[in-house]
Each structure stands twice: as structure tokens, then as C-alpha cells.
Recombination protein RecR
Amino acid sequence: MSAGGDIEALIDMMARLPGLGPRSARRAVLQMIRKKELLLTPLADLMHHVAATVRECATCGNIGAGQICDICASEKRATGEICVVEDVADLWAMERSAVFGGRYHVLGGTLSALDAVGPEELRIPKLVQRVTDERVTEVILALNATVDGQTTAHYIADQLEGRVRLTSLAQGVPIGGELDYLDDGTITAALRARKAF
Amino acid sequence: MSAGGDIEALIDMMARLPGLGPRSARRAVLQMIRKKELLLTPLADLMHHVAATVRECATCGNIGAGQICDICASEKRATGEICVVEDVADLWAMERSAVFGGRYHVLGGTLSALDAVGPEELRIPKLVQRVTDERVTEVILALNATVDGQTTAHYIADQLEGRVRLTSLAQGVPIGGELDYLDDGTITAALRARKAF
Ligand SMILES: [Zn+2]
Ligand SMILES: [Zn+2]
């Protein structure tokens, strides 16, 4: 490479980001160096700032800059509906479709015997508590249509059975599909046509 | 997005890097936030460090951490051969093939009447000067096989005519192809089979 050890190290680290390989990392780093004042320095500043301020919402697990995330803090969001998602990427995908006006609960993964992920690791007790505390009337299980996602949905449904209306995203989510890969229209259709779980 | 303004700003800026779109930028940013200590903070540190130290080599135009780049400073690199490339990505591509043991001259682009890029902007006078000062015997014109690349190669050949052996990369470079997209083997073959310009 002969680009100086620091530039090489930067390329190696960039190449570890999802969606970037060695080649695109090299191109990205060169572009940043070419636009040092416009790209490299502001990006580094922003990363330091985000690293210093980002945290998980104490209520829902979404990420934001405060103790409570923007969605949980917003008075415009309905309190009676909670949409349960696996991770923040799925929450963002739901938000882009702009069809859901309630609040979220981010599990941070799915139940997995193999990886020893139990209900405690997934904020499921916290979800059960919220259903009571926030007078929730509907929980939408917006988990991925994978085996682990559906296992997790069934487990949550068992915990909340009889205490709240349980629904899941319906038509439009393909078998084995993941929310974060769907277009906004598909998510909108799936949410509108949601059915009892 | 509702991810907090700073996270959104970081995603927007990452999405401006080559090879990344909005979706991969979102995934990259989430991954960095998940691995804050391992990825986000070290990446920001490294970017600041590179922004503070990176500079163009006063001799060849390559980037590095000093006044003179690692290649120009190395006593192991032959001084009699200069390989002329359009940009640093092309230099890196040449270096990955590890077949060239001489030095480089990075033009920083190609001549272009349309974009008002003349010889001065491309370090061509500096190249002519190096040919004399460094007792260069061969100049390899490793410019992209595009119209502008070849126009630039001919212009440089005119300037150096009769003063040095002029060669160009030969077989293996496809018509309209760009060095940075070629595999290492193709570059090796093209350099080995270089022909008089
Ligand atoms: Zn929240
Ligand atoms: Zn140099």
C-alpha cells in the first residue's frame, strides 16, 4: 500500500464496516483525504460527538442523545400502542414508512438457545412492565419473518396473552424476509393489513 | 429517522462517501454505535490523526505523513524509472501488483480543456524537471485507457521526447478501462509486456 501506516490503518478499519470491502474502503479514504476540510475533519468531529452522547433509551432501547429517546419523549406519539422490533435498524425502517404513530420497544435481538440469548437480554420483562405501566392496548409484533424472530414473537405473545391486543405485521413481509430490507410501501401495506396474532 | 439529529447528520455524511448509499450508511453507523469502543471512537481518533498529518509528497504527489512520501524516501526504490499515474488510487493499484520497483509521479488528474485542467495543474513541469534532476532513464506512462488519459500521455510524451525512454502499459488494459478496477495479475502482465510509446 505504501500509503503511510495511519492511512492503511484507517482503510483497514473502514473495511470492517458493513457494506464496505477493502476496495470501497480505499476509495472512501482517498475521497475523505481529498476533501479533508469538508469530509474527513467534520466526519471525525461528528463521530466523536456521537460516541460521547449516544445512549440507549431507558424505556424502549432505541438510541438517542438523552436518557429517553425522541420518540418516547414526544407528546405526539400515541402511548397505547407499542411496536416491538428486533433492532434499531428495524425501528428506522418502520419510521421511514411513517405509518405508525405509536411507540416502540427495541429487543436488541431474538431469543436464541444457541447463542444463549434469553428474555432478560431482550428487554422482554421491561416490555411486560410497560404494557401495565403505560396502559397499552395493542402490541404489534414487528419481528423478522425468520425462525428466531417468530420464536421470539410467540414467546412474547405467551407473556402478554389476555392482557393486551396482540397483532403482527401481515401481508407483504416475505418468508425469511427482514424488515430492514423492505421498501417503505411494503411496510406500509403490512402494517395497515396487520392481523390478530 | 428519529434517531437524534447528530446520528442523522453522521448517516448523511457517511452516505456521501463513494460506494456507500443511504442504506449502507445507516448500517455502518449502527454498527459503529454498537461497537463504540472498538470502532466509532478509534475511527474518529484515526481520522483526526490522518487529517492532521496527511500531506502530498513535494516530489511525486503521493500522499503520506511527511514532506516526502515513503516511496520517494525509500533507498530500496530505483531512481532511474518513474511511473506516471493519474491519482493515488492508481499508485496503490500498481503497488498491490508489487511488480514495479521504481518511483512514481502522481498527476492528480488528466488534461481537460472542458474542466480547464492544464499541464501546471498536473505537476507536468515538475515531472520534466525530475527527469533531468534524477537522471531518469525510463518514464512509464501508466495512465487510464480513456480519451483524456491518452491525450495526457501524448502531451507528456511530447515534452519528454528524445530525453528519456518512454513506455506505456501494454496488453491487459481493456479499452476504456481504469487501473484502479483491474486485478493485480492484469496489472502485472501489462507492466511486464510494456511497449515503447
Ligand atoms: Zn425510547
Ligand atoms: Zn513521493
